[in-house]
Design goal:
By secondary structure, the protein is mainly α. The protein has 15 helices and two strands. The two termini are 19 Å apart. The N terminus is likely disordered.
Length: 391
């Protein structure tokens, strides 16, 4: 009986993980057929630059959702962090790095503020961050005095717009970009193989070897093709390195550390986590502080990309981040999800937006399509749970 349940769980999990990969490939194939410029080196580079801050937000949001919470304030907080940085760097002439540190510091302080109300006082995160959404937006208008500030220029601007190109040479492409991606793919394959061996050692169900190898080969080919296209444009974006470091760091944190296991436990079954000795208040506090930290980083990237700060910046970004997580396999009840899943979900959102823009689809219709995709992703998760015997 247990083996049947384990097999059913494996099939459900594989369907969820493989489903979003198949969906990503299908969307890429569709837009590449509809527009010949979609897979061009320049357009792929633009996708990375234009949506990197959403992917950074999605990393933190995935951890929040796994813990059984939601954060509605990240768009407003992103605007506030960028505003503080702009006032210091543009208006008062401080060095660019002071603006970066100040933005991240404001994000952390905001996370501490919301973590206190969620973890110590016990107010649901939905309510706390709804208040934070209004509070941080109002503070943004106060900090900027209701006007935009620009430009940053210099090293600050390069954070989201600079490239490594030609460092190692290459005949028609940037060799450094290809090498870095190859190292990353090799590391990912090693991690996947080690996880599989660990699962077999503990007699846990795993995918058949041919399917496992096929997955590794398919992902490696796709990633390296993407790397080659990037290398033919302007080289390796600085912001992509920042994003890669965050993805690797938080993947390890969530899969290999006590904190990560506790977050899954809290979101999966709060009562059991309390009985198991998990320090729920502390971990909930850290979840919100971490979200503030990553929002500060995203605020730096966004303001650098826009080369300035605007009072209305970050509007609706929280919904894009939340949608990326649910499309990427997060469960609406918490306790389920992976950082890589959030990245795939974010890429789906980014590719849909970019593809529809190339096709000249109106902004209103883009919102309609995104809403339908999010609804279908959540419905797919509910369907999987019912198949697995969930309620």
């Amino acid at each position: 009986m247990n083996s049947i349940m384990n097999l059913r769980e494996l099939m459900s999990r594989n369907l969820r993980q493989s489903g979003i990969l198949i969906a990503l490939l299908a969307i890429v194939a569709l837009f590449s057929v509809l527009n010949s410029n979609f897979l061009s080196p320049g357009n792929l580079t633009n996708i990375v630059l234009q949506y990197s801050y959403i992917l950074i937000l999605a990393i933190g949001m995935m951890i929040v959702i796994i813990g059984g919470h939601i954060d509605l304030s990240v768009g407003s907080l992103l605007a506030l962090t960028g505003a503080v940085s702009a006032v210091l760097v543009i208006k008062n002439g401080f060095p660019w790095w002071v603006g970066v540190l100040a933005a991240i510091g404001v994000g952390i302080l905001a996370g501490v503020w919301q973590g206190f109300w969620v973890a110590v006082v016990g107010i649901p995160a939905f309510i706390v961050t709804l208040g934070g959404m209004l509070l941080f937006r109002g503070l943004t208008y106060q900090v900027l005095s209701n006007v935009s500030l620009s430009p940053f220029g210099g090293p600050y601007y390069d954070i989201a717009n600079g490239f490594f190109n030609g460092v190692l040479g290459g005949n028609g492409f940037d060799l450094l970009t290809v090498i870095i991606f190859a190292i990353a793919v090799a590391g990912w394959i090693v991690m996947q193989w080690r996880e599989r061996l660990a699962a077999l050692r503990y007699e846990q169900p795993v995918a058949a070897t041919p399917l496992f190898v096929l997955k590794l080969v398919l992902v490696a080919v796709i990633v390296m093709a993407f790397a080659y296209q990037l290398s033919r444009s302007r080289g390796l974006p600085f912001v992509l390195i920042v994003l890669a470091v965050l993805i690797m760091t938080y993947s390890v944190v969530m899969q290999r550390t006590t904190f990560g296991r506790h977050v899954y436990a809290i979101g999966g079954n709060l009562s059991a986590a309390l009985l198991s000795g998990v320090k729920v208040k502390r971990d909930n506090f850290l979840i919100m502080v971490n979200m503030g930290l990553l929002t500060g980083v995203a605020g730096v990237v966004y303001s650098a990309r826009m080369n300035g700060a605007q009072p209305g910046a970050g509007n609706m970004f929280e919904l894009d981040a939340i949608a990326a997580c649910f499309i990427g396999g997060a469960a609406i009840t918490g306790g389920v999800g992976r950082i890589t899943g959030a990245m795939i979900g974010g890429l789906i959102m980014a590719i849909m937006s970019n593809g529809m823009q190339l096709m000249g689809v109106s902004t209103s219709m883009q919102q309609v399509v995104k809403g339908l995709v999010l609804l279908l992703a959540v419905a797919f998760d509910v369907y999987n749970k019912r198949r697995a015997g969930g309620k």
